[in-house]
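Q: For a teaching handout, I want to show students what a protein-ligand complex looks like in token form. Below are the inputs, and the small molecule is S-adenosylmethionine. Please produce the holo structure.
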Amino acid sequence: MKRRGYPGLVHVVDTLARPVRDLRLSVTDRCNFRCTYCMPKSVFGRDYTFMPRTELLSFEELERVARAFVRHGVEKIRLTGGEPLLRKDLEVLIALLAGIPGLDLTLTTNASLLARKAQALRDAGLDRVNVSLDSLDDATFRAMNDVDFPVARVLDGIAAAAAAGLRVKVNAVVKRGVNDGGIVELAGYFRHSGQTLRFIEFMDVGATNGWRMDDVVPAAEIVRRIDEVFPVEPVEPAYRGEVAQRWRYRDGSGELGVITSVTQPFCGTCTRARISADGKLYTCLFAVRGTDLRALVRGGATDDELDAAIREVWSRRTDRYSEIRSEQTVDRERVEMSYIGG
Ligand code: SAM
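A: Here is the structure, written as tokens, with S-adenosylmethionine included.
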């Protein structure tokens, strides 16, 4: 792997021998969508209080934390949120992170602001983006984002990203009875585009989305439905710990992925750490408590002290929530995805 032998690299594994390789940095807890399964208006309404700006890690603090994780073996950083493109001057952060040698840098977005920002992001050094798009049917999409945002503007954002030279993947969360009727249409639309579409099983993140197992469309069913119309065959994973199971169309028209977080959990190879917008380190999407790295950074900790804190947390990591998920774990307390970063 490209970072092996990187000077100053500190090897750390958790209690299940998993290294830390991916870091998700949440740059804001705000979003301009109110996707019913993620930030429902009933909870994130007009009177909801988001974090004040002073609570957010500054770009310099984010870079410092990022570099600390890179010293521990992180090879890939994803900026997320909330909606990361709502963070003012995000391209300044991209430029800082793009200055870290050998790092794979990416961003997850709802693409509502992508048409306007794609070129500046690319110019700052971003290589690729993941766009969330759950349906091509305008009425379904508007109902799911719950702010009446038209699907055409997301497609414009994707086109602008591609034109700016960004590689694009598209992620669709599937909820039974809501958008599963559009699975084949989505597959057909992206088949010849060179943009890999990935379907994500609806997960029980946070405590506000009213998750039920009945709402989950298993990835095997998603693949079966597509295969009936556009025949597919499996592709070997590109690397250990790859989140999406890969499939390719037999006619050579591209690839497709499924993220089987519910029906076939992949905790055993999970190498992801997450930093919330206010600088707390979480070692699982389903965690309850984080470790306050912002307090260390703002309290004048040296790099050695910051490194020691990260090593301490990671070496004690035991999380494997998705493997122990059941109807009984649904009521367990946990943080919201908009806060911890998707
Ligand atoms: N605003 C950005 C976006 O739309 O991509 C980034 C944050 S969003 C929380 C990241 C991803 O998490 C989106 O693709 C969203 O669809 C997905 N997501 C949110 N809640 C989910 C759930 N309950 N199950 C599966 N995926 C979910």
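A: Two things your students might notice: The chain has a mean pLDDT of 93. Residues 59-71 form the longest helix (13 residues).
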